[in-house]
Amino acid sequence: MEMTERKNKILAAVVERYIQTGEPVGSKNLLDSLGLSVSSATVRNEMADLIDMGYLEQPHTSAGRIPSTAGYRYYVENLMTAYDMSPTEKKLIDIKLHETTGEPHAVLERAGNIIADISKCAAISTTPADSEAVIKRIELVPIGTHTAMVVMLTSFGILKTRVIRTDSEITLDIAETFYNIVKANFIGKPACDITIARIQTLALSLGEKALAMTPLLVVLSDLSKMTEKTELLLEGQTNLLGYKEYETNAFELMEFLRRSEPLNRIFTLEKNETGAPSVLIGKEQLYRELQNSTLIFSRYSIGGRQSGALGVVGPTRIDYARLIPCIRYISDVVGIILSDNAED
Amino acid sequence: MEMTERKNKILAAVVERYIQTGEPVGSKNLLDSLGLSVSSATVRNEMADLIDMGYLEQPHTSAGRIPSTAGYRYYVENLMTAYDMSPTEKKLIDIKLHETTGEPHAVLERAGNIIADISKCAAISTTPADSEAVIKRIELVPIGTHTAMVVMLTSFGILKTRVIRTDSEITLDIAETFYNIVKANFIGKPACDITIARIQTLALSLGEKALAMTPLLVVLSDLSKMTEKTELLLEGQTNLLGYKEYETNAFELMEFLRRSEPLNRIFTLEKNETGAPSVLIGKEQLYRELQNSTLIFSRYSIGGRQSGALGVVGPTRIDYARLIPCIRYISDVVGIILSDNAED
DNA sequence: TTTTAGCACTCAACACTATCGAGTGCTAAC
DNA sequence: GTTAGCACTCGATAGTGTTGAGTGCTAAAA
């Protein structure tokens, strides 16, 4: 069976109506919002066809129709007219994002707040990570006689710091040795090169200074490990409690969202060259816990390179037309801010 | 009416039973867990007295009893035998807390995880803040030609950093001027002295260097403001979804917990010299949103001085005997770790 | 005076039934 | 191909009866 213009109209109307109300949509009910001068019986016939085609579902015989996963998919790809964000709206988002310090964590947290606010759903994001990061700079900032802060900057503009207390005093001599080692061994090299094994080898060649230096070098290995690891941020989880689709199983979804591995997996698995957000709808998804939800996300780019991701999770009847452009825009702005921040 | 030994026993049994099951406790039901050889009728008579005295409540005529706020209060203060944490248990907590970097945020996050895990409720904590903090040290770490990190350390061992990008290059000369200004004006002074007004005055005296210096000084004012502001950490919120007392209004409570002002207000208002955790039960509380919950918290001390707080929020039938000692212990350990961290 | 057995009473929870109404599929006429 | 009409379906809602855990009260026993 082929999709006709009328079927398109009806499917779009059902999807939009259902997104609004969350109630199964009946034929009569639909007539109002439909610009067609046909009877409800005709609409019913068409809807029956749409069920055959797999785009609609019926919770039970005497109820209206709701869109199936395939129905949403068809809607998103063929029927939806993306909401056009007004300049004022964009400006507001710009301002809110620029209010932050520009550090990835802060920017993404703010982005999450904005997304949660607009979508009334949960926002997710991951901080940028780069397994191929190159170390640009390492600093040792003395804070006390036995305390110092180690700062590591990588090619991605990711800045990690760690305060360390040592048993032996941090003298000028120690600091100098530290800088020498760092310059000779780490600057300009991949962060993943700083392994414990490497440090042990280095320590051997340090003689009596090994005792004082090792803790400092171990911190470097920790920091480099941190640049490879992303952090998962969640905002507006509680918004989900308002939807009746999550009445019984909000807990399950929320627990799932807290686990970073599966989400990271989803983000990295999804190949998407277009720059448009990825949309994963209901049953399309790999993880059972997400199969009655939709995930809209976009990987943002720092310096032209995809790094972290940000997006929104909600019921399958999420407002696609509104949120897809919105996630795209926020992802772009976040990318710009973080790229700026990464530049020297 | 006076409390007799038997009334005490019965009240304690009702409270403990209700904490376990969440179901109203009936007279017959109670006989098992009660070490008394009396009939259910006697127990009923006693329970009727306890209702008159305000310690028990009845959801409806033909149901069992549940403790009232006053009942819990009496239980906590007179009847409860605090759970004695085993050395192994303590050790485990020690280890988990020491695994962190020792920075307040990290330690408290971990503490929150532990509390959420033990209590199956939500953990709350606030990072240390000190309105009377004195500036101990300020550093300017060059990162690029136009980028630098400003580091501020205050008397509380609170370390705040901020990366800044400037229009004018950060030369050695600029850095030197910065250190001179800082040394002359800020080191050893209260953090709250660094106001925008003060900076404007300073800028006037800097002549042509004002343009380059002002942004750096403004960052200092931001950082000093940050040392005064605490941050609220929440862990294990989703645990609350498992309790039927929050079936309908989990959203309201969770939204309330996200707002830091009221919680900070509660923490600072509560005077408690004993060192034991504060326990705020149900209707005793100021905020309507907490009136069917209990809050157990303790202010931890850094360097002998009360700063932030940490604790747990759950239904009024929270496990007092277990959690009060637990919060106390964790608060002590957190205090020790953060004091260590604050020391130079 | 305190305790207890006994009994009538209460009320949430549950199962069952009837009714309502939004929505359906089908058919025959347009 | 469209539509009016009609019988049908089934969730939701309300009403009814039953059950059972639990109560308060009373009068007798301790």
Explain this structure.
The structure is a homodimer of 344-residue chains. In chain A, 47% of the residues lie in helices and 18% in strands. With 344 residues, chain A is α+β, with helices and mostly antiparallel strands. Chain A has three domains: 5-79, Winged helix-like DNA-binding domain superfamily/Winged helix DNA-binding domain (Arc Repressor Mutant, subunit A), CATH 1.10.10.10; 87-129 and 231-343, 2-Layer Sandwich (Beta-Lactamase); 135-227, Enolase-like, domain 1 (2-Layer Sandwich). In chain A, the strands form three sheets. A five-stranded antiparallel sheet of chain A has the order 7-3-10-9-8, with helices on both faces. In chain A, strands 4-5-6 form a three-stranded antiparallel sheet, covered by helices on one side. In chain A, strands 1-2 form a two-stranded antiparallel sheet. In chain A, helix 1 crosses helix 3 and helix 1 (5-21) crosses helix 4. The first copy, chain A, is elongated and about 90 Å long. The model of chain A has no long low-confidence stretch (mean pLDDT 92). The interface between A and B is medium-sized, with 31 and 31 residues. The structure holds a DNA duplex (30 and 30 nucleotides).
Residue runs with pLDDT of under 50 for 5 or more positions of chain A: none
The CATH H-level homologous superfamily of the largest domain in chain A: GAF domain
Biggest sheet strand order of chain A reads 7-3-10-9-8
Q: What's the assembly state of these chains?
A: homodimer
Number of domains of chain A: 3
How much of the polypeptide of chain A forms β-strand, as a percent range?
A: 15-25%
Give the fraction of residues assigned to helices of chain A.
40-55%
Major sheet of chain A, described briefly? Answer: 5 strands, antiparallel
CATH architectural type of the largest domain in chain A: 2-Layer Sandwich
